[in-house]
């Protein structure tokens, strides 16, 4: 009797421990296997960002796209191997991703110091943190221990990444599906305080809004509509770009919330954050530069949460040798 009941519960304890372990990342994960990892990553990232600051936003966005599609498993970095099975990189939302060469350079420097030890998914999480810090944002300890995935599918990007025309209800649902809250949504959207957008990502708000000739989105300040029309001539110019946070697009600050409150958010997904009580309250509390330290702390916490989405900590995950190719 006794042994019979002990054996299954002993087994289930082991299974439970393995499940718990699968969720487990830790800040000191490479302290023995690659003790200088973080200084190597920071040095190489800084070399790129100091000569082209605009890479910083691109690297932050890349980590977001990685985490929302199949979890933070480096799948965004993989190149397409066959035309009838395109990788995430070749999906519509990813066509504007930039900075893959930075990840390749960091990986190559890390490999020189510690061969086959550090995953590309972890490198991307560290690079995103360093990029934000290098342009005046917060820094935070990054829990590590992710393994790299072996699958990357273009159609999963479209299905998992929220598009710029989503309303707040749709955005909250999208974030909830990744275990992130409405508060995480408004905090992480604060990433739009840096970087650029192509006109094509928002020109539907400027011209023929909702199919009505010559109408624009009434939720956007008409003066801002006029200014954007000058930069984005019709029809759907796909080459022109604008700063998402004009005048402060390379400074990580609270200006994003200030422009949202002025009805100058660039995407519908930004503007719509005024329409929900939780997200609106956060915006109103952060319109002033004085709220910067509160935003910085929140951003760090939400980035750590985002960095834990669907991570692989064991098989079938691997340590990729080259970030753009599965082993
Ligand atoms: C809430 C849902 C989100 C939507 C709908 C969204 C949408 C977009 C779009 C359409 C662009 C412009 C792409 C282009 O036309 O070049 C963009 C850029 C950007 N996004 Fe988001 N985004 C979201 C959340 C996030 C999050 C969570 C982060 C990071 C924490 C982020 C960081 C960025 C950055 C830094 C850029 C600028 C990239 C560059 O300069 O190359 N976004 N986003
Ligand atoms: C997660 O890792 C940390 C540090 O390595 C360890 O202290 C903790 O017990 C682990 N937790 C689980 C659930 O494995
Ligand atoms: C996505 O593409 C793969 C092949 O690349 C296919 O097997 C799968 O059914 C597709 N999924 C959806 C939702 O279209
Ligand atoms: C958001 O969009 C969905 C789907 O189009 C719609 O059902 C819902 O009513 C919209 N919510 C708001 C607040 O506009
Ligand atoms: C739309 O606006 C353009 C530019 O202002 C103008 O030339 C055109 O006549 C307008 N079309 C209609 C149908 O109002
Ligand atoms: C977009 O507009 C710019 C001028 O504002 C022009 O130089 C460029 O050729 C246009 N591109 C396309 C694809 O229309
Ligand atoms: C969300 O949390 C649940 C419960 O902890 C977990 O089973 C699920 O895998 C998580 N989802 C993601 C995308 O991380
Ligand atoms: C289809 C397509 O344009 N894919 C692009 C995705 O993004 C990478 C990096 O910018 C490009 O190299 C691909 O050509």
Task: Give a nutshell description of this structure.
It is built from 13 helices and 2 strands, in the order ααααααααβαβαααα. It is mainly α and 327 residues long. It starts with a helix and ends in a 21-residue tail after the last helix.
Largest sheet: 2 strands, antiparallel
Order of helices and strands: HHHHHHHHEHEHHHH
Helix content: 40-55%
**Which topology of the largest domain does CATH recognise?**
Peroxidase, domain 1
Task: Give the rounded overall mean pLDDT.
Answer: 92
Indicate the CATH architecture of the largest domain. Answer: Orthogonal Bundle
Helix/strand-derived category reads mainly alpha
Bound heterogens, unique: protoporphyrin IX containing FE, 2-acetamido-2-deoxy-beta-D-glucopyranose
Helical stretch count?
13
From the N-terminal CA to the C-terminal CA, the straight-line distance is 49 Å
Q: In CATH's first tier, which class of the largest domain applies?
A: Mainly Alpha
* Count of domains: 2
Tell me the number of strands. Answer: 2
Cα-atom radius of gyration = 21 Å
Low-confidence stretches: 1-22
**Binned strand content:** under 5%
Rough shape? globular
The order of strands across the largest sheet is 1-2
Disulfide bonds: 34-114, 67-72, 120-323, 199-232
Protein name: Peroxidase
GO cellular component, one term: extracellular region
Pfam family, one: peroxidase
């Amino acid at each position: 009797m006794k042994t019979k009941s002990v054996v299954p519960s002993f087994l289930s304890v082991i299974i439970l421990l393995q499940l718990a372990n699968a969720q487990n990342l830790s800040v000191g994960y490479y302290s023995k296997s690659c003790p200088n990892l973080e200084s190597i990553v920071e040095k190489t990232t800084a070399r790129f960002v100091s000569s082209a600051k605009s890479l910083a936003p691109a690297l932050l966005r890349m980590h977001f796209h990685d985490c929302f599609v199949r979890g933070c498993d480096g799948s965004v970095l993989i190149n397409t191997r066959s035309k009838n099975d395109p990788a995430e990189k070749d999906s519509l939302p990813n066509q504007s991703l930039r900075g893959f060469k930075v990840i390749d350079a960091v990986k190559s420097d890390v490999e020189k110091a510690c061969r086959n030890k550090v995953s590309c998914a972890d490198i991307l999480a560290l690079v995103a943190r360093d990029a934000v810090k290098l342009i005046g944002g917060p820094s935070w300890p990054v829990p590590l221990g992710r393994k790299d995935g072996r699958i990357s599918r273009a159609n999963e990007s479209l299905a998992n990444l929220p598009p710029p025309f989503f309303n707040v209800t749709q955005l909250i649902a999208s974030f909830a599906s990744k275990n992130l809250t409405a508060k995480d949504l408004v905090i992480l959207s604060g990433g739009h305080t840096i970087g650029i957008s192509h006109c094509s990502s928002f020109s539907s708000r400027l011209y023929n809004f909702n199919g009505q000739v010559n109408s624009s989105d009434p939720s956007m300040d008409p003066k801002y509509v006029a200014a954007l029309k000058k930069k984005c001539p019709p029809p759907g110019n796909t080459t022109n770009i604008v700063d998402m946070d004009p005048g402060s697009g390379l400074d990580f600050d609270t200006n994003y919330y200030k422009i949202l409150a002025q009805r100058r958010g660039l995407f519908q997904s930004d503007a719509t954050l005024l329409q929900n009580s939780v997200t609106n309250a956060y915006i109103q509390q952060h319109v002033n530069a004085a709220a910067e330290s509160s935003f910085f702390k929140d951003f760090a916490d939400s980035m750590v949460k985002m960095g834990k989405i669907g991570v692989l900590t064991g098989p079938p995950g691997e340590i990729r040798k080259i970030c753009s190719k599965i082993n």
